[in-house]
Amino acid sequence: QVQLVESGGGLVQAGDSLRLSCAASGRALINYALGWFRQAPGKEREFVARIRWSGTGIVYADSVKGRFTISRDNAKNTVYLQMNSLKPEDTAVYYCAAVPSWQDYREKGNYLYWGQGTQVTVSS
Questions:
Q1: Phi, psi for residue 62 in degrees, rounded to 5
Q2: Tens of pLDDT along 90-112?
Q3: d(Cα 68, Cα 110) in Å, to the nearest integer?
Q4: How far, in Å, CA of 74 to CA of 88, rounded?
Q5: Cα atoms found within 13 Å of the Cα of residue 100, Cβ hemisphere only
């Protein structure tokens, strides 16, 4: 069992930055990769970024590449999503989720655990 709690969302202006945190707890975290997803109103939940607890295997969606950075602090069991140069189209609820490290990270159905989400709103 893995528990995930996101924080750090808020209302910002276009061009601003935010850092989201995902605090993880539970057993055998090393066996999971952590992903960030987002869901805008009326749209499907989409993949944003992924990192393994080892710090390897970092991947980003094309829409955020070069602007967002995923990282982790193993001592704190926390994964971060640093979001720079935010755009109005980044507005969404952001979720972190855990997937067994050997599973295809691109498939939402492979993620076993999800956080409650944190709202990010970017005004223009």
A1: -60, -30
A2: 999 999 999 999 999 989 999 99
A3: 23
A4: 32
A5: 6
Strands 2-7 and 18-26: antiparallel
Handedness of CA 31, 37, 42, 43 (dihedral sign): negative
The answer to whether the Cα torsion of 11, 40, 111, 51 is positive or negative is negative
- Amino acid making up residue 21: S
DSSP letters for 59-105:
EE-TTTTTTEEEEEEGGGTEEEEEE-S--GGG-EEEEEEEEETTS-T
Residue 122's alpha-carbon distances to 39, 55, 94, in angstroms, are: 14, 29, 13
Rounded CA separation 51/47 (Å)? 12
Longest dimension (CA), the chain: 42
Relative to beta strand 10-13, strand 118-123 is parallel
pLDDT band at 30 (very low <50, low <70, confident <90, very high): confident
Structure tokens at 70: 């995923």
Q: To which residue do tokens 């989409």 refer?
A: 46
